[in-house]
Structures are given as structure tokens and as C-alpha cells.
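User: I'm curious whether this sequence folds into something compact or stays loose and floppy. Could you predict its structure so I can see for myself?
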Amino acid sequence: MRRLPLLAALGRDERGVSVVELGFLAPILALLATGVMDLSKGLSERFSLQQAVNRSLELVQSRPAVADENENEVSYEFVKTEALKAAGTGAQVTLTLWRECDGVTATPYADSCPSTQDQARYLRIRITKNYAGEFYFSSIPMSASGAVRIQ
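Assistant: Here's the prediction. I'll summarize afterward.
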């Protein structure tokens, strides 16, 4: 019978309740904090890809294109090389050239538009890379792209 008042006293005692509540919430808060850090790291990687694209587009505008060995087609492989350096390991760079005659996409790229139409040539740079976060089970594909008029 003496134990009954002791158990009733322990049942009314509220000291240490906040420690127990913290014990329940601490894993959730830790998971939330690490998720936010991983998300910010992924966004930083994405911004780095876009910065690599922007640097490559600036390179296209500042440096003349290199003609191939036949002197009839222009090559932008130097841009691809620089974009790969800027994007880091594991990145893939795709260059797409196209021309427009009066604002309408025309093929092939090497041909010219009729003299009555406005001609424009463009270069698109697309960088893709897989992001493997710290807490993901698989990698997440990321990409950045940009285009510039070259003629």
C-alpha cells in the first residue's frame, strides 16, 4: 500500500517532460536540417552548371569560330571543351547549331537563306550532369542551357 502513493506522486510529476518531448522531436528536426542542407547543395550545383553555360556563351561571343580542315564548316568544339572544364567531372555538353530564315527554323545549317529573307544562325549549349545527394538513393539529373546568336 505504501507504493501506491509513490506511483501517484510520480504520475503527477511533470519534471523531465520536455526532455522526453525533445527525444521524440530531435530525429525529425535532424532529418529536416540535413534535407535542407542537401537541397541547398543541389541548388548550388545547378547554379554552377548555369554559370558554366553562361561562361561558354561569353566565350562564343568573344572568340571567333574555328573553321574545320575543309575550310567550309565552322567548328565550336573549343566551346565544348571549355564548357566541360567549367562544369566539372561527370558533365556532358551538347552543342546545337541552327539557322532561321525570317524567324523560321530552316535546315540544313550550312545553307543560306534566299536573299529576300533575313538570316540568323544560333548556337545552343546544354550541359547535363547527375547530382548524387548525400541522402538520396539514386542520382538526380540536372541540366542548364543557353543560346546565343552567332550570325
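Summary: Residues 17-62 form the longest helix (46 residues). The mean pLDDT is 84.
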